[in-house]
Amino acid sequence: MPLSMQLYSARKFPPVEAQLATIRANGFDYVETFGPLHDDAAGTRRRLDAHGLAAKSAHIGLETIETQPERTLQVARQLGVEIVVAPYLTPPERPTSREGWNNLGARLAQISARLAAEGLRFAWHNHDFEFVALPDGSLPIEHLLGDTVLWEADLAWVSRGGADPEHWVERYRGRIPLVHVKDIARAGDKADEDGWADVGTGVMPWPKLWAQCVAAGAEIMVAEHDNPSDFARFANVSADSMRRFAAGARS
Questions:
Q1: At the N or C end, where does the chain have fewer CB atoms within 10 A?
Q2: Mean pLDDT score across all residues of the chain
Q3: Which fold has domain 3-250?
Q4: Are 148 and 180 a contacting pair, CB within 8 Å?
Q5: Rounded to 5, what percent of the chain is helix, strand, coil?
Q6: Are 157 and 132 contacting, i.e. CB atoms less than 8 angstroms apart?
Q7: 3-state DSSP call for residue 153?
Q8: Residue 193 burial by CB count (10 A; 0-12/13-18/19+): exposed, middle or buried?
């Protein structure tokens, strides 16, 4: 399985050319782009091509996707992206009721249908707040994904939200084309990295989760660390771990 890297992980370690060189040197084939890299999507594509990398997925803000559909398509096509991912809602943007989350889910379903007509897939990327129960006991993630919307599962955030990643991977089997491979540091460790860890060095049961995700239909496994103190270290350690998980899933 080709490995991908969310370029958000490298944002504090410019320039982009050095980031891409590090990513490629560690055996990654794909990257996942985000906001600033879309300001000059054609230029980003040229840099990716020069390093033998491809952007299979891109994080594009929900507001941009909804209010600038042509811009969204332009970015996706210039980058060669196959899956557009809506990555986040700020606290003021988050609904506070079941009805509100249902309405947002209906909007996501409309986006999915519109992008499908253009030959693109659409997915939602979670954090922890989607797994905080509403007053009726349901979870926002259920209303967001509905019956059709695809999910880019960030399983470390699922865990931080107090939910069981294995349960939710099984729940949405067949609808998880991408997975964020992120690790959580042991209690008290990595405070300077917001409690995140290089893949394979934390508490997430990634060997088991990797195999489960692949069995559930995951196509792209995306390494991510929200705040690494050393990006080169993160890329190297995580790539080694991901290759080990992939080999274990095949055996």
A1: C
A2: 97
A3: TIM Barrel (3.20.20)
A4: no
A5: 50, 15, 35
A6: no
A7: strand
A8: middle
Q: Tell me the CA distances in angstroms from 51 to 37, 66, 77, 247, one per residue in order.
A: 16, 32, 19, 25
**Non-local CB neighbours of 189 within 8 Å, separated by 6+ positions:** 195, 197
Tokens of 244: 């080990």
Once rounded to an integer, what is the mean pLDDT over residues 156-168? 98
Q: What is the dihedral of CA 193, 1, 30, 190, to 10 degrees?
A: 0
Residue 58 belongs to what H/E stretch? strand 54-59
d(CA 161, CA 139): 11
Where helices occur in 80-205 by DSSP H, the ranges are 98-116, 140-145, 155-160, 165-171
251: pLDDT strictly greater than 90:
no
Residues 50-105 have pLDDT tens digits of 999 999 999 999 999 999 999 999 999 999 999 999 999 999 999 999 999 999 99
Give the C-alpha separation, 185 to 190, whole Å: 6
Residue 174 DSSP SS3: coil
Buried b (16+ CB within 10 A) or exposed e, 60-79: bbbebbeeeeeebbebbebb
Confidence of residue 248 (pLDDT cuts 50, 70, 90): confident
Instruction: Measure the CA–CA gap between 91 and 95, rounded to whole angstroms.
Output: 9
State the Cα–Cα distance between residues 45 and 81, nearest whole angstrom: 10
| Residue 218 near residue 176 (C-beta atoms within 8 A) | yes
Single-letter code of the amino acid located at 160: R
- Listed by start position, the domains of the chain span 3-250
**For 118-235, where are the E strands, in sequence order?**
121-125, 150-154, 178-181, 183-184, 196-197, 220-223
The H-or-E segment that residue 54 falls in is strand 54-59
